[in-house]
Amino acid sequence: SREGRDNSRRHQRQFHVQGSRSVAFPVTSPDIMASLVAAFSRVSLGSSVSARRGQALGVSTPSAAPSGRVSFIVDAKQNALKRQRTSETARLYNKDKKSAVATRIKKVLKSADELKKAEVAESDIMGLETLISEATKAIDKAVKRGIIKPNTGARRKSRMSMVKQRLMIEKGLYTPAN
């Protein structure tokens, strides 16, 4: 009986489908390749292949498909899956840094609005300058790492300095050269 099992195993070929599952096809004639080609010739990958970001490549058939059509899922390649993971971690990192930049800019603008409403001395402007310095540092780091574009960073720094300059002009602490 053991010889019979070994003998039957020898006459089967294993074909792997979707990772760990395997299907055994018995080898009974020399035309096995021709029969396999005939069996899989009905599978169509034509225009029904679709993929979305973050998902495996899927092959679907229309609802009114001929009876010979097959629906199955093709797993994304290993490097594509790794790229998705690294892209997601980079996206979260970039989102965090952009949020930090926006928070620092909001602190500057809020502080400037509070100073507009109150009496201001030179020493009060120093607190605003430290906030501007922190925001500028965060913007420069984001630009250096490619999180925001250089012109966007320059525009945001310019906006903060213009707010400070307008505040100082309004309070009589600075007179422009013109």
Structural description of this entry:
The chain has 178 residues and is mainly alpha-helical. It folds into two domains: 2-76, no CATH class; 79-170, Ribosomal protein S20 (Methane Monooxygenase Hydroxylase, Chain G, domain 1), CATH 1.20.58. It has five helices and five strands. It has helices at 2-10, 32-40, 78-117, 122-144, 150-170, and strands at residues 12-16, 22-26, 49-50, 57-59, 72-74. It has a three-stranded antiparallel beta sheet with strand order 3-4-5, with no helix packed on it. A two-stranded antiparallel ribbon has the order 1-2. A hairpin with a 6-residue loop joins strand 3 (49-50) and strand 4. Helix 3 runs antiparallel to helix 4 (122-144) and helix 4 (122-144) runs antiparallel to helix 5. The longest helix has 40 residues, at 78-117. It is rod-shaped, with a radius of gyration of 33 Å.
